[in-house]
Amino acid sequence: MYYLDKRLQYPVRVESPDPIYARQLQQAIGGIEGEIRVCMQYFFQAWGNRAPTTKYRDMLLHTATEELGHIEMLATAVAMNLENAPTKVQEAGAADAIVGAVMGGENPRHIAEGMLHKHLLSSGMAAFPGNADGAPFDMSHIYASGNIAADMYCNVAAESTGRVLAVRLSNATNDPGMKDMWSFLIARDTMHQQQWLAVIEELGGHAGTLPIPNSFPQSEENQKYNYSFFAAARDGAPPPDGRWTSGPSLDGKNEFSLVQNEPMGEEPVLGPARPDSAAQAEQIG
Question: CA 172 to CA 163: how far, in whole Å?
Answer without folding.
Answer: 14
